[in-house]
Design goal:
26% of the residues lie in helices and 24% in strands. It is α/β, with parallel strands linked by helices. The two termini are 32 Å apart.
Length: 289
């Protein structure tokens, strides 16, 4: 089903690469359609949905919104799971570590005390631990806090990610924030001792980020099947609309496309496992928990 006009896919920066694959695939099938991908963060994506643009906007969100959220309970958002997304915990190679336990990771990010140098961890170098985090409102950060840390990240203490700001010198850890996963990767690639997180496929681009290492968590390495197994840092990418889009609208037509075999093939070519099976059932890893 094709539409003529413009559709905006707004939200997750982690899903940008895969969303662009879907965009190009749809536009090749439907030459009169213009699909715009705007990666501004999951929360910004849901904020962009209004009654006025329900026919032409879809929000890309890392993970399911809570059933008791205002978006679901009051505004009537409807979600379609598209593909599981595996995220990676990443470090600068100079740290010397190749994997961490979730327990170690929670200790590193603990507000109340924990290691501040990589040498305090097995195999670690004599470098300060520098936390490079996403800004508040990032879906990836929310998944990291909820599924890995089980608590919020510690306080912001640095602007340059290398040293604590003078006014925040008393804080335990060096922690900075960046607004996109591209900025996270650029920073971890450039700053010795840095640790952060990003979508797996982008993080694994060794040509672009030669100093970045993807870590195993509890001995499990993220990979093609990671999001479908017991790897802890994964979530479905869910496309939300403001209620049920009008018939024959750009949003309605694109959702129909996502439910079909052509979209499943594109997702597989992009290295993702489709959430919807051939008989239109939602695969277990993509269901609400």
């Amino acid at each position: 089903m094709c539409f003529s006009g413009t559709l905006r896919l707004v939200g997750s920066t982690a899903f940008e690469r895969t969303a662009d694959v879907l965009r190009r695939g749809y536009e090749a099938r439907c030459p009169d359609a213009d699909v715009e991908v705007r990666s501004v963060g999951s929360n910004e994506g849901t904020r962009a949905l209004t009654t006025g643009n329900a026919a032409s906007t879809i929000a890309m969100h890392d993970g399911h919104l809570r059933p008791d959220s205002d978006e679901i309970r009051i505004r009537g958002f409807r979600g379609l799971p598209v593909a599981p997304v595996a995220f990676a915990v990443i470090v600068h190679k100079g740290t010397g570590v190749t994997g961490l336990s979730v327990r170690d990771l929670r200790s590193i990010y603990a507000r109340g005390g924990g290691p501040t140098s990589w040498k305090q961890l097995r195999g670690g170098a004599d470098l300060p631990i520098r936390l490079v985090s996403r800004t508040e409102g990032s879906g990836t950060r929310t998944i990291f806090e909820e599924r890995v840390l089980s608590e919020p990240e510690p306080e912001l203490s640095s602007r340059d990610c290398r040293r604590k700001d003078e006014i925040r010198a008393a804080l335990r850890t060096i922690r900075c924030e960046r607004s996109s996963q591209g900025q996270i990767l650029d920073t971890v690639n450039a700053v010795p001792g840095a640790i952060g997180y990003a979508e797996l496929h982008v993080a694994a681009d060794t040509r672009r980020y030669p100093n970045v290492r993807v870590l195993a968590l509890d001995g499990r390495r993220p990979g093609a099947a990671a999001a479908m197994d017991h790897y802890p840092f994964a979530a479905p990418e869910v496309f939300y609309t403001y209620g049920l889009p009008p018939n024959n609208s750009p949003a309605s037509a694109f959702l129909t496309f996502l439910s079909g075999g052509a979209a499943r093939k594109l997702l597989q070519q992009a290295g993702s496992s489709p959430c919807l099976t051939a008989d239109a059932q939602v695969a277990a890893p993509c269901q609400t928990t």
